[in-house]
Amino acid sequence: MNKQINLLLILISFSFSTILNVNGEEYTTIQSAIDAAETGDTVLVHQGLYYENLDIDKTITLASLAMYDNLDTWYEYESITAQYEINNDNIVNTIIDASEAVDENFTSGIVVRSPEDECISPVIMGFTIRGGMGTMVAEDTEDGEVNRKIGGGLFSYMTNADIHHNQFTNNGDPSVENGGAVYAQTSTEDWGFDNRSSGRPRCEINEINIHDNFYRDNDAIYGNTFSNRTFTNEINLTNSLFDIYNCPESNVTGVWVDIQPEAEPDYSGSQGDLCAITDDVWVSPIGNDYTGLATTNNPIRTIKYALEIIAPSDDNQITIYLDEGTYSPSLTGETFSLLLISNVNLIGAGEELTILDAEQTKGVMYIDYCENNIISNLSISGGNTDSDWYSFSGYGGGVYLESSNPIFNNITIFNNMADYGGGMNLLYSNPTLNNVTIFDNIADYGGGMHLWESNPIFNNVTISNNTGGYYGGGMSLGNSNPTLINMTISNNMANYGGGMNLWESNPKLINSIIWDNNPESIYLDFDEEPIIIYSDIQGGWEGQGNIDSEPLFTDPENGDYTLQEISPCIDTGTAYLEIDGEVIVDLDGSEYIGSAPDMGAYEYNTLSIDKPVEILPIEYSLEYPYPNPFNPITNINYSLPKNNKVMLKLYNINGELISTLDNGLKSAGNHTIEWNAEGYQSGVYFVKLDVGEFTQTQKLMLVK
Q: Where are the domains of the chain?
């Protein structure tokens, strides 16, 4: 009945407006018809493939012939494909393809914008919109104006548009900032937009109407499907088909619909190709995103997909378990940056076993306005935000935190790059770090870590061999007062503050070691007054229990910052400390060995003197495999003089890669990989070891 009434209203409206047909005769392009239309007119698009990027700045109806159809059941579930399909030919076959844009700044399928001093209310219905990559907008930041792309398929700028009965598919990608399918801007204070007119539109928007639409395979950093950063009123998303739908709660997670917490989305009558998972999920490099069930016996392959298919909540936190292996663009098809959401834990199989490697494509992990997150038992590597232009460009090559307080346990962060915080960048965040190692990271400010207005708590954290181009080789602090307990900060370098640079920051440093940093241990920008006690500071520092003595690390050149038996840092810390009535340190006897805790990140274990000491190799090498020739098993041995990232690959006689035998961060020492060639043909093979700049190859002969 309602459809009949709507059709009647449409027919009545036609008697007072002009219909402009895009049918190859009257008009050949949709944009030419839009340009010729006047307020109240209808641009009626006949079936066809239109490579256009449309610009609408007037109140018109843009529709396909689907406007004449009964759309009560315009999509339905198909058992053959096991997913929902559109059964309306006009919607399926009237296609706006935005992939051939002329202006790289305007690559959305459709831009709808209100001109100066106007507020338009166009209707857009009955299309397949695909291939859109967003519209360039600007934002003023502390570092100047930065540009983003938003609204892959459609960008609505200050309008009361009614967008319904469209299929949005394959719009956006991980470079689109907001709204892979649709971004609706409802405030002029949001993004800055070159709307091709002077002045601002006058538009009061009380409701966003984007209902009865079909979404599939759209992508963005924020809101794969839809995004709005400011609106707090009702958003009509009814009767729509989403990729993933939280069936028990009848809603969609922030991965797909990115809106303000105060907004009022209405998902009535909506469905999803898949129902979201509300249990823990498992990910493995040998899993499959298409056939996997995200279970321990049938895992999926990528972390990004795991984040897309789950629906955590305050009452139901979800853990993503990561199997051993390296998760990277080249090996597993992983997409970075990984944007965590609230109430999600990320747990690996061990720091040396589970590696997140962005391969210098983007930052590794981004945690923004999140609650209730634990990240543990993994390594974070290969992040680079130097060349990014999205919202956290230049910050946190390994990890970027903003207004979030996660817990990091047993984490290694290495070989990452950024302008601020090569290893980690903290902005308005107070995380807890336990047993974390941060080394070989590079940034202009804070090679290991950069803090701004953040007050984290660190326990047993090692920051070593990081480089700051200007300030803070190990750490750069701005307006931050962290609590640092049992830290080791060593062998870092910068122009100022090789160990730490303090700008209006007063950290508490207890039971810690700062040694062998260049040019100095701590650089004060103004009159900072850090509290440093029971610590070994090279160059000396006034404070209770402080010393200035060579700490006698076991093997710092190879990353071993444990203490030798005769170290002056053994039993020289404190087990209990109060500052201004606040308990900072409170350790019982089971938490340390000896009469008092040691200084530094590693407690000396006297039992270790009874253990055989491994003699570390003095150089990298790939030994000749044994046996060789072989059938079908041979042992491949390689040696590392220090901890490093290893890649061990196997090639056939034609130089084609046939297997990756080993990949990831490995400890110093001798390593053996057994290769079982049961499924391979007789012939010559080559095994190649890559460790940084070192490369060596050995030949193998399989004889069956």
A: 47-67+74-275, 358-586, 621-702
Which pair of tokens denotes residue 284? 């493995």
Half-sphere exposure in the Cβ direction for 517 (13 Å, CA):
36
Beta strand 531-533 pairing with 500-503: unpaired
The total of other beta-carbon atoms located within 10 Å of residue 315's CB is: 6
Phi/psi for 268 (5° steps) reads -55, 135
Name the DSSP letter for residue 91.
H
Ranges assigned E (strand) in 415-546: 417-420, 424-427, 432-439, 442-445, 449-452, 457-464, 467-471, 475-478, 483-490, 493-496, 500-503, 508-510, 513-515, 522-524, 531-533, 536-537
Per-residue pLDDT tens digits for 243-268: 999 998 999 999 999 999 999 999 99
Instruction: Check if the beta carbon of residue 148 is closer than 8 Å to that of residue 154.
Output: no
Residue 681, Ramachandran bin (φ over 0: left; ψ between -120 and 50: alpha; else beta): beta
What letter represents residue 49's amino acid? L
CB 514 within 8 A of CB 496: no
Residue whose tokens read 């298409």: 290
**Measured between alpha carbons, how far is 44 from 671 in angstroms, rounded to an integer?**
69
The length of the chain in residues reads 704
Task: Please name the residue that has the structure tokens 């406007």.
Answer: 67
**CA dist., res. 195 & res. 54, Å (int):** 13
Q: Which of 205, 258, 349 has its CA nearest to residue 664?
A: 349
User: 608: which DSSP letter?
Assistant: G
Q: How many other C-beta atoms are found inside a 10 Å radius of the C-beta of residue 636?
A: 23
pLDDT tens string 152-177: 999 999 999 999 999 999 999 988 99
C-alpha dist (Å) from residue 355 to 326, 332, 365: 5, 12, 12
Q: How many whole angstroms from its chain centre is CA 87? A: 36
Query: What pTM was estimated for this model as a whole?
Result: 0.80
- 374 backbone dihedrals φ, ψ, rounded to 5°: -125, 130
> 621-702 architecture in CATH?
Sandwich (2.60)
DSSP H or E run through 30 = helix 30-36
